[in-house]
Design a protein that fits this description.
Helix content: 25-40%
Structural class: alpha/beta
CATH class: Alpha Beta
Number of strands: 15
Shape: globular
Number of helices: 7
Largest sheet: 6 strands, mixed
Radius of gyration: 18 Å
CATH architecture: 4-Layer Sandwich
Number of domains: 1
CATH topology: Nitrilase/N-carbamoyl-D-aminoacid amidohydrolase
Order of helices and strands: EHEHEEEHEEHEEHEEEEEEHH
Length: 285
């Protein structure tokens, strides 16, 4: 399975972002990518820097115009495309931070709604997004089984475990994460290290490939830090993008090596599922 991760900057014009993303996808496919993933909320600026009800007008349904366009593109290029979108729900006032997964024949396989919703200065996501109801985001594509989670989901080992238990060979994390200027000098390097380390740990603990796809550029008060990367089952970053350059990160996943890893590091065999019941509580007194 050859991955193509699209690290890009966004503009204020959704149509321009979609057109530029299509160009990147065509380039990635020409270079042999089979599973291509865009960054979180790829077709808009990161509007969550503020609370503004007008931004709800950016949402669209799934299926909708953007997924229709990328279904045609996936069919033409015979590639899997992972499309993160601001989703308009089925009833008024309900919106999701979502991702649509399109198979290589152009079929819309389904969508996932981000389950963990952050709330921080410059990341006002709870104002906009209803949390998804369940983590069930594994799809059997032409090129293998992929699982998709979104940004803040990447900090929770329980989410990665559920995806791996559902059979994912690769976990994709479309992302929009960066530095606040007042924190970067003191904490920037540590924050980036934490972000990379926790996802590399998911790769080890679950014996699968993990890939994070971030945006770049400064939007509002946030400087998105790029550094899209792929981690193998040993937690090694086997591919990494830069901090501030648009690029297509390519990596071929060795599925046989992942099977071999799970044979010699049998974490799933040795899990004590009878001992973990308290994980369903917030805390243990």
């Amino acid at each position: 399975m050859k991955l193509g991760l699209i690290q890009m900057a966004m503009s204020a014009a959704p149509a321009d972002n979609v057109s530029r993303a299509e160009g990147f996808i065509r380039e990635a496919a020409a270079k042999g990518a089979q599973v291509i993933c865009l960054p979180e909320l790829f077709n808009t600026l990161y509007f969550c820097v503020e609370q503004n009800v007008d931004h709800f007008d950016l949402a669209e349904p799934i299926p909708g115009p953007t997924t229709d366009r990328f279904c045609e593109l996936a069919r033409e290029l015979e590639v899997v495309i992972v499309v993160p979108l601001f989703e308009k729900g089925g009833i008024a006032g309900v919106y999701y931070n979502s991702v649509a997964v399109i198979d290589a024949d152009g079929t819309l396989l389904g969508s996932y709604q981000k389950t963990h919703i952050p709330q921080d200065p410059g990341f006002e996501e709870k104002f906009y997004f209803t949390p998804g109801d369940e983590i069930n985001s594994v799809w059997h594509t032409r090129y293998g089984k992929i699982g998709v989670l979104i940004c803040w989901d990447q900090w929770f080992p329980e989410a990665a475990r559920l995806i791996a238990m559902s059979g994912a060979d690769v976990i994709l994390y479309p992302t929009a994460i960066g530095w606040l200027p007042e924190e970067k000098a003191e904490l920037g390097a540590a924050q980036l290290n934490a972000w990379q380390t926790v996802q590399c740990a998911h790769a080890v603990a679950n014996g699968c490939t993990v890939a994070a796809i971030n945006r770049i550029g400064t939007e509002g008060n946030s400087e998105f830090w790029g550094h899209s990367f792929v981690a193998n089952t040993y937690g090694q970053q086997v591919a990494q993008a830069t901090a501030d350059t648009e690029e297509i990160l390519l990596h071929e996943v060795d599925l046989k090596a992942q099977e071999d890893f799970r044979r010699i590091w049998p974490f799933f065999r040795d899990r004590r599922i009878d001992a973990y019941g308290d994980l369903t509580f917030r805390s243990i007194e």
